[in-house]
Amino acid sequence: MDTFLAAAIEEAKKGLATGGIPIGSVLVLEGAIVGRGHNQRVQKRSPILHAEMDCLNSAGRLSAADYRRTTLYSTLSPCDMCSGAILLYHIPRVIAGENRTFRGPENYLRSRGVQLEVADDPDCVRLMREFIESNPALWNEDIGV
Fold it and tell me: Is residue 28 within 8 Å of 34, Cβ to Cβ?
């Protein structure tokens, strides 16, 4: 398994262990993780702290040139909000752990030049399927249903 996707999965497990939704993300620049995050909507009562947003926040301010050399790893296909941040900061590459349980605007990201790859990782699928089965109301709230 890709070590950066494995790091995102560890973030997802941190989120689950603290009562949240098991989605994790890492931002990679020049082969090093510069930001980590996990969904913290429940823990911090936040409407915006999806894993990708938490990850970008933890990376701090990067230069526009730095963002253009990053890869964002997320255990789940990014939603509309997180895709907007990817486009805003011109992050050129996204690796999504899976898109079976939720599919964000992947074709739109690709149409805007983002290289988006879906790993279809079984651990990512299992984490989300188990969570959704056990917590359907919380999951629906997270994705705005």
Answer: yes
- How far apart are alpha carbons 22 and 74 in whole angstroms? 11
Catalytic residue from among 11, 52, 98, 106 = 52
Average pLDDT over residues 99-114: 97
pTM of this prediction?
A: 0.96
What end-to-end distance do the CA atoms of the chain give, in Å? 32
Beta-sheet pairing, 32-38 with 24-29? antiparallel
Phi/psi zone of residue 144: left (φ > 0), alpha (ψ -120 to 50 degrees), beta? left
How is residue 50 written in tokens? 């999806």
Largest CA distance in the chain: 42
Alpha helices, DSSP H only, in 1-92? 3-17, 51-59, 64-67, 80-88
Active site residue 133: no
Instruction: Convert 45-57 into a string of H (helix), E (strand) and C (coil).
Output: CCCCCCHHHHHHH
